[in-house]
Amino acid sequence: MSGVQIAIDRGGTFTDVHASIPGQEDIILKVLSVDPANYSDAPTEGVRRVLEIVTGKPHPRGQALNTAPIQRIRMGTTVGTNALLERKGARSALLVTRGFKDLLRIGNQSRPKIFDLKVAMPELLYQDVVEIDERVTLMGYTEDPYPKKIDAASDPELRVGLTGEIVRVIRTPDLAAAKESLQKLWDDGYRSLSIVFLHSYVYPDHEQRVGALAREIGFSVVESAALQPMIKVVPRGTSATADAYLTPIIKAYINSISANFEGGLAAEGLRCDFMQSNGGLVDFRSFSGLRSILSGPAGGVVGYAQTTWDADRKKAVIGMDYHYP
């Protein structure tokens, strides 16, 4: 038997498993997401039960599963969602342009309730901040309605950014000083970092240099411009710190699943994808914390859209996800 395709929704209470087998009826299973008395991982247990049904042979718990009959595994999970809600993410630090240590704490001063005298500031996801002495600025912004064209070749400090805009490199990061700061973070037990520099969406060079240095030490690194190359440093930085907070949890979870299969999830002939917050699937090696936050709910929305829309009647459907208290 080959060509088995398995779809898994790993929720907080139950894990649902749907398997499509060529020439046979589909298999639908439901197991507890947490049942340490019987198994260590719910998705693996679901796959194990499917393989027993498909092959007609016992697959003892605790033994690595042979993935030969499986063509594809698709999974949605609330691991990232729960880690964020319960504040059980990784201990992480933020590297930011010198002078902007409190940038994400201050935020954009949004006040949804303008007359509310008590403003609750959102909890920060990082535990420490290191200021990196670097700075670039954008050129060509002036009140003159007819500004002069800037020639980037006329000044060694000028660079052409990714958007075609001209930037001036005011200060290049001192990598020796940065390495010293990074080593201190490592010695303090940090293993995950986010790097958020001003204007990096147009000139990511400084983030890339410091990021490469941090990876050499062994850190899990999120460069804000690589993750989300957008203008507005506050939302870009917030996304980067969330990713640094959750990605180690996601990677550890994926590694724990992978260890239960012969050859891991990268075994020959096997494709494993995870549902992202946007409803799209991505290879398990590219699945990250930020894009996992709505993985489970997104799968539900896609499911409703695919199964309940009537092309003839063209009537909208409202889906509800009810959790027992």
TrEMBL record:
<dbReference type="InterPro" id="IPR008040">
    <property type="entry name" value="Hydant_A_N"/>
</dbReference>
<dbReference type="Pfam" id="PF01968">
    <property type="entry name" value="Hydantoinase_A"/>
</dbReference>
<dbReference type="Pfam" id="PF05378">
    <property type="entry name" value="Hydant_A_N"/>
</dbReference>
<protein>
    <recommendedName>
        <fullName>5-oxoprolinase</fullName>
    </recommendedName>
</protein>
<dbReference type="InterPro" id="IPR045079">
    <property type="entry name" value="Oxoprolinase-like"/>
</dbReference>
<dbReference type="InterPro" id="IPR002821">
    <property type="entry name" value="Hydantoinase_A"/>
</dbReference>
<feature type="domain" description="Hydantoinase/oxoprolinase N-terminal">
    <location>
        <begin position="6"/>
        <end position="218"/>
    </location>
</feature>
<feature type="domain" description="Hydantoinase A/oxoprolinase">
    <location>
        <begin position="236"/>
        <end position="321"/>
    </location>
</feature>
